[in-house]
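Dear colleagues,

As part of the handover before I leave the project, I'm documenting each prediction I ran so the next person doesn't have to rerun anything. This entry is a single chain, and its sequence is reproduced below.
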Amino acid sequence: MAAYLHPGVYVEELPGPQLISPVSTSNTAFVGLAEKAPAYNKAFQITSWNQYVDTFGSFMWGCQMPFAAYNFFLQGGSICYIVAAEPGGAAASIAAGALTVTAASLGAWGNKLSVEIANYPSMPDDPPTQVNPVFALNVYYTMPTVGEALTLCDQLVEHYAAANKLTKIQISGATAYLVEAFPGFSANDLRKTGAAPCNMELRVNSASLFVRVAVATAPDPKRPDNMAPTSLSRGAGDADSTPIDLAKALQALDTVAEISLLVAPETVSTSDLGAQRQKVLEVVGYCERRPHRDLFYIADSPFTATIDEIVAFKTGRASSSGKVPEGNALNSSYGALYYPWISFLNPSNSRNVPIPLSGSMAGTYAATDQAVGPWQVAAGINYGALRNATGVTRILTDTDQDVLNPNGIDAIRQFPTYGIVAYGGRTLTSDPSLIYISVRRLMIQIEMSLYRSLQWVVFEPNTQRLWGTVTRDITEFLTQMWQAGALFGAAAKEAFQVQCDAANNPPALQMQGQLVVDIKIRPVFPAEFVIIRIQQATLGSS
């Protein structure tokens, strides 16, 4: 106690209550493939798409994470942590004079690309070997011959070609799509100054989804000779994409505490739907094994799945088509599954690209959290609008959703007037108390807010004074949550209860160094089914 020796006014600061602040629920972790990385299997904070491009590169065919990150920011996300998994395999490539053209990502899929060097503009009476000063670089993707099975990559290209009305030609008896064309180059576009990229490298590599171009340095560069469509070669790895070690990449998140959402879009990058389900289960398992269970996983559905197949994928039964084998069901309150895919307009080439939902939904979650809170499900025409979407890969009907919704599959619907919206808000679980995404995410927020804000209690004297202080602080926090609309009740006492007293802290527990706080809350549930009852009645005059 201070000594008061002379008359006067003494001002003293007294300790106030230890405020419990709600933790952020919108920071998102992304795990997947990138064009480059400062280090593989390590998390880096990113706060804008431009920063992502500077750090991890741009869009690549065969890699879903760049699309997911772009649409996360486009839909309203602001902070994310990126983990670039170390890729396996080798990229297909071909040399054409001073040019080396390489598939944008690693994997055997690049062997289906062909490159053409042609005069620009091409003239019908041009001799094939005549070289004009101006040339074009054309990129084709060759489809399997009749009777040959389509890979996932083939099906994505087929959808991409149809959506963008791409030119179709024949190469060695097989159908090929002109997926990209870069006209108007001359020898000057191959000229380099120091280590800076030349004009052709800048133009192609900033806009291409399918290839990257490297130009050999020469004092007097010459344009490459004309070349008929010729296949890239030496691509090695998975037929659909670049193989990664998902478990090792997820481990990079073990030391990242400031995340609440998880996106792992590369789970879709295989034609084997059984293997794809195992990848989703692996990510769900990671969320459930986190020490504080603080992550919610937004899972992606298979691109090719029918209604029966996506239900089989979710429930663990075998599909009637045989494409989905029997296996473990996706049953967890720490994840949600969205179906089908959407298309978005790729800003680098103004073409529609089919993408899975996880990145877009993470951004939608983040925007909804900022506007309301995690207790508001990111679904419906107000909070589920996918402004980035230009289409859906399958139009769902009410009858389709009658099958999807009870099985915990969240539908993406296209409605007149309202456009494309997320129209489901359920988790993967069969537990009725945690069936809604908003309830699980609210529980995560409350639990993590208490965990982080009550660290000061550890090693305090376990007395009635401490019990009262803890009760007061938690009550204040939950009152604020109730006032914000997160908890149900006409009064705070109807919305929650907090107990920390002698009844639940008997001497035996105190001697073991334990302090017990019992909390009961009434979360708000979404109005999933709105029933309007209208009855015809004869109303008498008053």
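The chain has a mean pLDDT of 94. The domain at 28-87+244-437 is CATH 3.40.50.11780 (Rossmann fold).

All the best with the project,
I.
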